[in-house]
Amino acid sequence: MFSNKAINVIFLFLLLLSVALVVFIFFVWNDQEKLDEIELVDKNDELNYWIDTCSIEHDGHTISVSGWGYLEDMPYIKHEVYVKSKTGGFYKLNTIRTKRVDARKFLKLEDEFDKIGFNSSLRILKENDFTKDIIFTMRGPYGKKANVEYTCK
What we know:
Blueprint: H1 4-29, E1 34-35, E2 47-57, E3 62-71, E4 78-85, E5 90-92, E6 94-98, H2 101-106, E7 117-123, E8 130-139, E9 145-151
Antiparallel strand pairs: 1-5, 2-3, 3-7, 4-5, 4-8, 6-7, 8-9
């Protein structure tokens, strides 16, 4: 059906396409858009949070933050984490929600609060531009929002 040469050409094409796709996905995931400012709100007493880890690694090119947070009576919220830049502005970290049954049980919350955890990270490929100051923001339904500033140790 196909000659060995044709199979080799198809294989080489698919191999190069796979490598190009991996490189493309890497740069999309590690998007380093710098924001001039972010919308902050005054301290909100309904904000409950805990930062488990906050680390800056690889000579300051990677930051990772994990923990949990929720707003009173709002189990379904969006977590956002920003890090301040040394040259002004902010970088938004890639953040995902995670299950934190341990925190929910410790806080004696209802089952809907299982996904109050978050993991955030960002890699800067250029220069070391992170400070140790992060801003943790939570957005609830109906426009409710809260944030807190935290300094990594």
